[in-house]
Amino acid sequence: MKAVWITWENQRRNRELSAAFGMKLYEFKEVDDIKNPIEKYASGLARTIRAILSERPSLVCCQNPSLVLSAFLVAAGKMAGFKVCVDSHNAGLFPKEGRSVILSGLSRLIQKGADLNLVTNEGLRRHVEENGGRAFILEDKIPGIPTVPPKKLKGEFNILFICSYAEDEPYRLVFDAAGKLDPGIHIYVTGDYRKRNIDPSGLPSNVTLMGYVPEDEYVLMLNSVDATLDLTERENCLVCGAYETLSVGKPQILSDTKALKNYFCKGAVYAPHTVQGIHDSILMLRERYPQLAKEAEELRLELRQEWDSRKAVLMSMLDDLGRKNHGA
Question: How far is CA 35 from CA 4, 7, 30, 40, 164, in A?
């Protein structure tokens, strides 16, 4: 079976999964930077077509989003005879947070038309199957983030708020909660805050906005802070930062959702999305830090073992798809 993985974004899950399954990765991340939609999609589709013609694969895996990439590959697979496995993220299953009727309809067609949809939790599996698709749950692999010497940070207790200023992230509540904390608790915030017109001078003194953080600086910060904070208002979303935090064995604060509590069941405090709830969760994490750090190490080992087991099952399913494509 010849299989390739295609994505138009720079996202750790694509790199981890394609490597784990021995698939050649075509990561056309420059497409994501093109602002003009006509140029963007023309460029992405042209690169994708060249990759397909060059490889002649029997199986293509892709990330959704992009809806355009996924829809094209599902349609092309039907015509050209290759199988398609779509790695379906929340933003691909619920485009525009579910507010767009047209995009939601396109998403349902992709789910139904794909030979297999990968999702990260039970709630998303049910959603895909209700739309007529076939789904398999595979959470993110705990990444192999390297251990590097930590750098000196500003606070007595330092937290990295992993943020991209997306619609589902309650970053304003975090800023307000920080203002009620002991100044010795310092919060570093990733992400391009300028796109939300945030003025750093108007924030509490124990908040540092870092802007866009390159990979090497992000790895350094994960190794340097005491804990992380990663929040989402999406009920069925397993945030990438939670996996990355576990990879360095650090405790974390996550949203108080069923999906996050079920999977990241140790080494974490779960925060309600209120100023007081986030404030109290930070204090609880600091108070329980030794126990939570121990739990984080335990959970890292457990999830790696569970993931390897699920990977073996999925490998068998993907092999079956490839064989069927060759008439076996």
Answer: 27, 17, 11, 7, 18
